């Protein structure tokens, strides 16, 4: 019999094998200072395009004041216990009611964490006789939720409605045999590429197929749609979304999440979500802070306006200079380049050390081999000067990538990894 840890000693995984070269700089980096458009990285000021603080609320003085006052009043423990047992309060109910109204649903229910809540919601919505059909590029939290499902599940090609319909035909035949139902899952905005899910087209398929629609709108909530209610509002199909999910970790710059649906569905879920039934209630400081943030989303449209000024300047500037930003339809701004993982490391180090630009780097296995994705998150705190500096820096690093500079610089990294 093998030692359970043998596989760990032999294979650190596709990302873990780079740990000695990457950790502390390329992965698990340490940004310092107040959350803002400019922070410190290894003692140097950098323009930060890697913080999910879309509306600039993380360090907003009104938000910090409310957070501090709530912390002083309630501490970081209150309320103790799970919601069903001893952790329920009027303020939890108030936040749920206000969130439901904001996203135009009958009811909502708070979740302690987005990832945990998504996994648990999928688990609660389906039984072994049901079939799940979901986008192949769905976020890891969706994939992990689907893994818990004891029944059949099918993926459809990313944002491909024809592929979805073929899988709905398969799922329908199977559901007729099992006596179950069908759950379709998409994201409102796919966080890596920035593309909106094809929500309008998916909702239209309800006229032909019998399914329920679950949308993860983590990157759309607060920033898309006329009122900020998200991708469903943006596409005019919020009513067609049966279960709506969003997190506080993006536009709300906090911790927590929620689901929203018809009252009867929420009543069912709150009695069957294991991750909430058996976990401590969302602490009061976060609840009070979320109420403040939600109020600012409703009453300060200039936050979203400022954000989109920066988004439009950055994305149009990149396209004008010939960069490939894919088909993003959101704030998420990907820049696609060609190169190896060692070249990507050299490029990003140059970008941070010599140009003062900090953005996230994504490589294989998240994207295909030979590709480099630089993922940028514009926020309302960025300035047009930040955009200009960044565009000039990207011109420079693209030239160095093309002329082989990073290939030469990365040779030592490749050699250390035993690669040619």
Which properties best describe this structure?
420 residues, alpha/beta, 7-stranded mixed beta sheet, 4-stranded mixed beta sheet, globular
Task: Give an account of the 3D structure.
The protein has 420 residues and is an alpha/beta fold. 42% of the residues lie in helices and 15% in strands. It has 17 helices and 14 strands. A 7-stranded mixed sheet has the order 4-10-9-8-7-5-6, sandwiched between helices. Helix 13 packs parallel to helix 15 and helix 14 packs across helix 15.
- List segments where confidence is low: pLDDT < 50 over at least 5 consecutive residues: none
**Number of strand segments:** 14
Proportion of β residues? Answer: 15-25%
Sheet with the most strands, sense and barrel status: 7 strands, mixed
Give the overall pLDDT as a whole number: 94
Radius of gyration over alpha carbons?
Answer: 22 Å
The helix tally amounts to 17
Shape descriptor reads globular
Could you give the distance between the termini?
36 Å
Q: How are the strands of the biggest sheet laid out side by side?
A: 4-10-9-8-7-5-6
Secondary structural class: alpha/beta
Helix content: 40-55%
């Amino acid at each position: 019999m093998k030692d359970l840890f043998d596989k760990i000693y032999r294979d650190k995984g596709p990302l873990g094998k780079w740990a000695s070269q990457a950790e502390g700089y390329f992965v698990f980096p340490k940004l310092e200072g107040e959350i803002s458009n400019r922070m410190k990285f290894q003692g140097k000021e950098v323009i930060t395009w890697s913080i999910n603080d879309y509306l600039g609320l993380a360090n907003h003085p009104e938000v910090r004041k409310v957070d501090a006052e709530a912390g002083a009043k309630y501490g970081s423990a209150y309320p103790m216990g799970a919601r069903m047992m001893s952790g329920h309060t009027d303020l939890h109910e108030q936040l749920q009611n206000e969130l439901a109204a904001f996203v135009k649903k009958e009811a909502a229910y708070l979740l302690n964490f987005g990832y945990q809540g998504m996994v648990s919601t999928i688990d609660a919505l389906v039984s072994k006789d049901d079939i799940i059909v979901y986008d192949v590029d769905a976020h890891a939290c969706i994939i992990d939720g689907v893994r818990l499902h004891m029944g059949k599940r099918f993926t459809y090609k990313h944002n491909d409605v024809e592929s979805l319909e073929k899988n709905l035909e398969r799922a329908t035949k199977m559901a007729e045999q099992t006596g179950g139902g069908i759950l379709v899952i998409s994201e409102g905005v796919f966080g890596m590429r920035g593309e909106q899910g094809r929500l309008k087209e998916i909702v239209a398929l309800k006229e032909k197929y019998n399914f329920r629609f679950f949308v993860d709108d983590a990157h759309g909530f607060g920033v898309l749609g006329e009122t900020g209610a998200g991708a469903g509002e943006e596409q005019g199909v919020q009513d067609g979304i049966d279960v709506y999910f969003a997190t506080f970790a993006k536009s709300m710059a906090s911790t927590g999440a929620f689901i929203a649906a018809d009252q009867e569905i929420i009543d069912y879920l709150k009695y069957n979500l294991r991750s909430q039934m058996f976990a401590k209630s969302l602490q009061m400081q976060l609840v009070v802070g979320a109420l403040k943030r939600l109020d600012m989303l409703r009453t300060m449209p200039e936050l979203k306006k400022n954000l989109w000024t920066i988004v439009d300047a950055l994305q149009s500037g990149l396209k004008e200079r010939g960069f490939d930003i894919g088909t993003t339809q959101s704030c998420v701004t990907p820049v696609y380049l060609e190169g190896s993982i060692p070249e990507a490391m050299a490029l990003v180090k140059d970008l941070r050390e010599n140009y003062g630009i900090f953005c996230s780097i994504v490589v294989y296995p998240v994207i295909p081999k030979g590709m480099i994705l630089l993922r940028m998150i514009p926020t309302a705190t960025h300035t047009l000067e930040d955009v200009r500096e960044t565009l000039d820096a990207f011109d420079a690093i693209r030239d160095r990538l093309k002329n082989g500079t990073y290939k030469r610089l990365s040779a030592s990294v490749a050699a250390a990894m035993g690669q040619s």
